[in-house]
Design a protein that fits this description.
By secondary structure, this protein is α+β, with helices and mostly antiparallel strands. The chain has one domain. Helices cover about 25% and strands about 25% of the residues. It has four helices and eight strands, in the order αββαβαββαβββ. An eight-stranded mixed β-sheet has the order 2-1-4-5-3-6-7-8, sandwiched between helices. Strand 6 and strand 7 form a beta hairpin. The longest helix is centred in the middle third of the chain and has 17 residues. The relative contact order is 0.23. InterPro entries: DUF3293 (IPR021710). This is DUF3293 domain-containing protein. Pfam families: DUF3293. It comes from Pseudoxanthomonas suwonensis (strain 11-1).
């Protein structure tokens, strides 16, 4: 899978961070939808539907936060699913969008994918961020961009993962 360019300007990174923090992350369970928010605890019952010690929300759509065709994104998603299948990981479908439902990106809530594995898949599929958290902890946002000055020290649900070339 080719790595697409992720915008690296300070303004672009700030906009992406704000968008990811404000986004709606819906998990499609067998009996309904669960809404995830960075910095908040996962909804009660989600761990019963998809048991695990940790969870990751990841997508292969729109690498680098650049719009791709549906065909390109579906192809990338099929490759991501193949990787998840190869790892034997259970998952549920997700749909991430902005607060108004724009910029929809299907993805996956994956159980028991360690943070290092999530980081590797996110980079392989050109993603600027994933959600990741452990049982009993709030939902976290892992960003794979260089943090703008002052942003990395704000704390909260964001973890800045060192960019690798």
């Amino acid at each position: 899978m080719a790595h697409k360019h992720i915008p690296a300007t300070v303004d672009a990174t700030r906009r992406l961070l704000a968008a990811y923090l404000a986004a709606r992350y819906e998990v499609r369970g067998p009996d309904g939808t669960f809404l995830l928010r960075p910095g908040q605890m996962a909804p009660a019952g989600l761990a019963e539907v998809l048991p695990g010690e940790c969870w990751t929300v990841i997508t292969a759509w729109n690498p680098g936060s650049q719009v791709c065709t549906r065909a390109e994104s579906r192809h990338a998603d099929a490759a991501l699913q193949s990787e998840l299948d190869g790892l034997g990981l259970r998952r549920l479908p997700t749909l991430a969008s902005d607060a108004d439902g724009n910029w929809p990106e299907p993805g996956w809530l994956v159980a028991n994918l360690p943070a290092t594995g999530a980081d590797a898949l996110a980079r392989r599929f050109g993603q600027a961020a994933v959600l990741h958290w452990r049982a009993g902890e709030p939902v976290g946002l892992r960003m794979y961009l260089t943090p703008p000055d002052g942003v990395a020290d704000l704390g909260g649900p964001v973890e800045w993962i060192a960019a690798k070339s």
